[in-house]
Amino acid sequence: MNGRLVGVPGPACDDGRMADDTVVVWDEALLAYDMGDHPLDPVRVELTMALARELGVLDRPGVRLVKPEPADDALLTRVHEPAYLDAVRAAPRDPLFAGFGLGTSDNPVFDGMHESSALIAGATVAAAEAVWRGDARRAVNVAGGLHHAMPARAAGFCVYNDPAVAIARLLDLGAERIAYVDVDVHHGDGVQEIFYHDPRVLTVSLHETPLALFPGTGFPDETGGPGAEGTAVNVPLPPGVGDAGWQRAFHAVVPSVLRAYRPQLLVTQCGADGHRSDPLADLHLSVDGQRATYRALRALADELCDGRWVATGGGGYALVEVVPRAWTHLLAIATGEPIDPATLTPPGWRELAARRRPGHDVPLRMTDDVDPDYQPWQPSGEPNAVDRAVAATRKAVFPLLGLDPHDPRD
């Protein structure tokens, strides 16, 4: 598709207004990204879309479901090496294949690996294009968010890095300032690595400390390469942090750096694996806290980007208990009014979840009954572990963006 002139996106409406719609990119074929007996089970995406549908989120006015097309090699090689694409295609045909991060316990080889990975990348590209063209103000691909994939290596359950491919496409269409905010419990290392030297992309990641969790990167002093200083922002949080600490850290860093950067469009990776029930990490967030984070992201997109927001899923391994509720909240916030946390999950969805994953606790309501309120960060007093993390990030990156690391107004 052809882009418009360099600058802000062009509106789709004849009277110059951007269409105030939300595109949800969806096709059941996205469930084919299936590594078998593996934590990243596509049932979490299936149950998310089923829950959103039963709660009427997908039937709201202005919501359009768009069927994606696979990203072609020209798109994928904006981020990935051609030899890596060849390896992804070849691996399922070779039972002894090894290399490029494939064939490991994290990234097992599976049939149709290239095709399903390319479709997820194409879905996130479709979301980004819809927002950039002005066809919609917001767009969501809950099957996306595979943020660990590197240019020539699979990593962390991720084969192709769909957020990075979509961001590269936006740059090709003329975008000059893209902000990427990653709230997965794991550092968004692949996206950071790909754009570390590109001042047109700001990457922001809140995550559990790399001292305790994969991938071992995402320290505060990772602030961007030469010529792009200040365009990588990392907030590593200690194990055990709950909603109040997470929200305190988020609001102490993310709004300030986004306001300083002035992005044209916000891309977010909304992994749900920071939840207290997630089996692969050690943060203690609730669904209510995740919902609050999504609301904050939408508010920042509204404030800074005229609402232009592209949201993806990401990690999340409490397949029934957490992910479907968290991402249904995400879809509701992207498409209009948030869902009341006290809302009951529909009986039909509970039956489907019990049938698809027997033995799992199926939640009765869209809440964990947690108040995600927090106390705003202040640079005074005896700092706790969260405040030390915040201070380290602000000290490392705020001066590079013209901000005062000690001023809570910045």
UniProtKB/TrEMBL annotation:
CDD domains to which the protein is assigned, alphabetical: HDAC_AcuC_like
InterPro entries per UniProt: AcuC, HDACs, His_deacetylse_dom, His_deacetylse_dom_sf, Ureohydrolase_dom_sf
GO molecular function: histone deacetylase activity
GO annotation, biological process: acetoin catabolic process; epigenetic regulation of gene expression
Domain of life assignment: Bacteria
UniProt xrefs under SUPFAM superfamilies: Arginase/deacetylase
Domain Histone deacetylase: 38-332
Signal peptide: none
Pfam family for this entry, one: Hist_deacetyl
Region (Disordered): 361-384
Keywords attached to this entry: Acetoin catabolism
Involved pathway(s): Ketone degradation; acetoin degradation
Similarity-based family: Belongs to the histone deacetylase family.
Protein name in the entry: Acetoin utilization protein AcuC
The organism of origin for this protein: Micromonospora sediminicola
